[in-house]
Amino acid sequence: MKDKIPRMDYRQYRAACRLVHECCNYDNGNCILLDNGEPCICVQSISYSLLCRWFIAAVLPLDGKLEAALLHRADRKRCTECGGYFLPKSNRGKYCPDCAGRMKRIKAAQRKRKQRLLCHALGTGKPP
Length: 128
Fold this sequence. Notes:
Elements (H helix, E strand, L loop, with lengths): L9 H10 L6 E2 L2 E2 L21 H7 L4 H8 L5 E2 L6 E2 L10 H25 L7
Antiparallel strand pairs: 1-2, 3-4
């Protein structure tokens, strides 16, 4: 590994800044963990790299797409529907969790439509 601390682009940095407010150690822009008598500004709100282990372990999993983009760059896949990155739960994963439910309903509807068409084509339906 050439770089253990992942670098963020501007979009990821803005998402991390919005997410830092969910941290239990965040207090009006300051970090309670780093406070040693004087207020210390939270490192996630001023840095383009993730430095706080608590943020990585407890807060970053709240945003799955950002976590996959920053921590699991080698393991992530691109969703075939929306194009976003996600961390698959198996090696056969094609869709992100947001698109997976919608695609499951679409595929089930197509399968039932085909099944009904074949059933009517065989003439096993009700007689006229």
